[in-house]
Write a structure and sequence with these properties.
Elements: H1 2-21, E1 32-38, E2 46-48, H2 61-71, E3 79-84, E4 88-89, E5 92-93, E6 97-100, H3 109-121, E7 126-127, E8 131-134, E9 169-176, E10 179-185, E11 192-201, E12 214-219, E13 222-230, E14 237-240, H4 245-259, E15 268-270, E16 278-284, H5 288-298, H6 301-315, H7 321-335, H8 359-371, H9 375-381, E17 402-409, E18 412-420, E19 426-434, H10 442-456
Length: 475
């Protein structure tokens, strides 16, 4: 009995000493989960509440990225196709054209234009039938619940098989010899733009954000723009999210097709590619590694959810895309002997009130990734401290030897990634704050990470956590 009591006391003492050894910079021990260990092997450097299930915010993207690199491979590409079973006579497609969406997360207006240009090169100038959207790549898109107050913001745009330009249209502003004006790009037929703009003249020397001088009001498919546009804002732009996914894709298609001299199609509907349909044009995306760069450096939720769903489509074990995506993640964790006990998945991007990981689970994924064949590919996607992405204005004195994925939600602030010492040794670090005061504790979180770096690498100076207050960014 004495030995049991002694063991319990010793274990409690070890936990207390571990917590006491870490300067939490004003955070309470129950507000933060911390884990750190050398990539090249050896004992853990730090562990505090490392097995607690916590909301990771966008550091969840690291798990999705790791699974995607291992399952899809870095060179994976999405292929978007235009197919039809109808005949072509004298440049006229005598029936429906089917746009088979692949869920390409980076498919943009320029890519759609390239796809349509290929259709024109085939000699087709008129589509006599309808444009059918084949959305069979995903059985459903899953959820990101309880973000209703964020509707209309770019980071809440839902994924889609026909995601086009992240469903963002651009307002282009001009103040030149032809007067003050604004144009919608692309010119979507279903969107009405009403502008009341005056000439702001030389009231500004620069134009960092045109919304400082113009007011943009959007209600449904109607956009109203008012204000006085300075000459310095000539050529500036601002984005708007309009229409639903299907209408945005179809109207973008029609606008760009018209610009290329094409006519039709005669409306839009949902449909499947018929048996025997032949491919008339196709567009192949950039590799997965390029998409992951956008996802992790800039914390793009829409793209991350699309990659997660692609994992489900390729897994295909049940035909339920979100469920199959979760299956793909858990199966790889099991194969690599990483416990998924703390893992709760909703959409794989961290834009979630429900998703959970433990700091240890996320840390073990980082170790596995760094030691695996695609470690360099994952590392290249992470923001470099003080240089780019969501870390551009943080860790000014530490510099690019620190690469970390950030995470921010209401009540969540997180960092996970790697430090590389000058001698090549690497440290995997996870630090996650779950607290009502999380958003105010960014400097504390940075301080904890800087302390862990100095504990691992004595050559780092004490001012490593120099941080410029960050602008509000995507979670």
């Amino acid at each position: 009995m004495k030995s049991v009591v002694a063991c319990i006391a010793g274990c409690l003492s070890a936990v207390s000493l571990s917590a006491m050894a870490l300067d939490l910079h004003g955070l309470r021990a129950d507000e933060v989960a911390i884990w750190a260990a050398p990539v090249e092997g050896g004992a853990e450097l730090a562990s505090l509440r490392a097995d607690a299930a916590v909301n990771p915010a966008s550091t969840m993207k690291l798990i999705t990225s790791w699974v995607a690199l291992n399952r899809l491979k870095p060179g994976y590409r999405w292929t978007t196709r235009l197919v039809s079973a109808a005949a072509v006579e004298n440049g006229v497609l005598k029936g429906d054209l089917v746009w088979v969406g692949a869920g390409d997360p980076r498919f943009g207006m320029a890519d759609l234009q390239t796809l349509l240009h290929s259709l024109r090169l085939r000699g087709i100038r008129q589509i006599e039938g309808r444009l059918l959207l084949d959305k069979s790549a995903f059985s459903s898109i899953g959820t990101a619940d309880n973000f209703g107050g964020d509707e209309g913001k770019s980071f809440t745009v839902e994924p889609d098989t026909h995601l086009t330009g992240l469903k963002v249209a651009w307002l282009r502003f001009f103040n030149d010899g032809n007067g003050v004006r604004v144009a919608l790009d692309p010119p979507l037929a279903g969107v009405r733009l009403q502008a009341s703009l005056g000439n702001g003249g030389d009231t500004a020397s620069t134009c960092p954000d045109v919304r400082q001088w113009v007011h943009i009001r959007q209600q449904g498919s109607q956009i109203e723009v008012s204000g006085k546009l300075p000459a310095a804002c000539d050529g500036s732009q601002a984005y708007v999210n309009v229409l639903d996914q299907n209408d945005f894709a179809a109207q973008s298609f029609a606008a760009l097709w018209s610009e290329l001299g094409g006519s039709g199609p005669q409306g839009m509907a949902l449909g499947r590619a018929p048996a025997g349909a032949r491919t008339l044009a196709q567009f192949q995306s950039e590799p997965l590694s390029v998409a992951l760069n956008d996802i992790n450096k800039y914390s793009n939720n829409t793209m991350a959810r699309t990659v997660y769903l692609t994992l489900g489509r390729e897994d295909g074990s049940s035909g339920d895309t979100p469920a199959d995506a979760q299956h793909a993640v858990r199966r790889l964790l099991a194969e690599q002997h990483i416990s998924d006990e703390a893992l709760v998945l909703e959409n794989g991007c961290g834009l979630s009130r429900r998703e959970r990981v433990s700091a240890r689970l996320l840390g073990q994924v980082l170790l596995n990734a760094a030691r695996g064949p695609y470690g360099n590919e994952l590392l290249a996607t992470l923001p470099l401290a003080s240089e780019d992405g969501t870390l551009k204005r943080r860790f000014a004195a530490t510099g690019p030897r620190l690469r970390m994925k950030t995470g921010t939600l209401k009540d969540v602030k997180a960092l996970a990634g790697y430090w590389q010492a000058a001698d090549g040794r690497r440290l995997a670090i996870v630090a996650i704050v779950n607290s009502p005061r999380a958003l105010a504790m960014g400097p504390a979180l940075d301080g904890i990470v800087a302390d862990l770096i100095r504990r691992f690498d004595r050559s780092v100076p004490d001012n490593s956590a120099n941080t410029v207050p960050d602008a509000i960014m995507q979670p």
